[in-house]
Amino acid sequence: EAARAAAAERLASALLALTEGTGEGPAALLDRLGGRPEALPREEDLRARIETLRRRRDSIGAVNLRAEEDARALAEEAETLQREGADLSAAVAELRRALQTLNREGRERMLAAFDRVNAEFGRLFRLLFGGGEARIAFVEGDDPLEAGVEIMAQPPGKMLGTLSLLVGGGTDADGSCAHLRGVPGRPGPGLRPR
Fold first, then answer.
1. Cβ-based neighbours of 103, under 8 Å, separated by 6 or more
2. CA angle 15–17–23, rounded 5-degree value
3. What letter would DSSP give residue 42?
4. Is residue 128 assigned to a domain?
5. Do 183 and 114 share a structural domain?
6. Fewer CB within 10 Å, N- or C-terminus of the chain?
7. What pTM was computed for the model?
8. For residue 193, is pLDDT > 60?
9. What digits encode the pLDDT tens for the residues 114-159?
10. Which of 71, 183, 77, 170 is nearest to 127 (CA)?
11. Both 179 and 114 in a single domain?
12. What 3-state class would DSSP assign to 148?
């Protein structure tokens, strides 16, 4: 009789645990499983399956419960970085356009000033030497912003050569430059009259 009471108590406890764990009573669970008690797995098989599932769960390791929130934050940061990258690309393109404009305008101004200085230099040379020919030419490149400048002169009765070869060095060339300070136009800081 005591064994029977203990078995009834275990059965009641198992039914209560089943109902609390599944939210359904034994009859509803039996219907869900096809209504055949013999089709149910044995208790040992269920315990082995539970243990296998627990081991698999434990082998996965810790679960980052904030993973979804972290992924969302990273996606927002990536989007922000992409926008900033696009802004930087647009700024670089705008700077390149501005540099091209400045270079074009600089070349145009340089060529215009060069033509004025070259014409005035030729006029002053003919005036100083009583004839002959002199000119300034770009050397070592077609780009006036990067090319060097060479002064070529041919006094009356002499061969054409560079000014430094004709006058014997820098001092005489400096003297010639002093005369060129009076060239009309907008001279640079080193060529302004004192």
1. 145
2. 90
3. P
4. yes
5. yes
6. C
7. 0.45
8. no
9. 999 999 999 999 999 999 999 998 887 778 888 888 899 999 988 8
10. 183
11. yes
12. strand
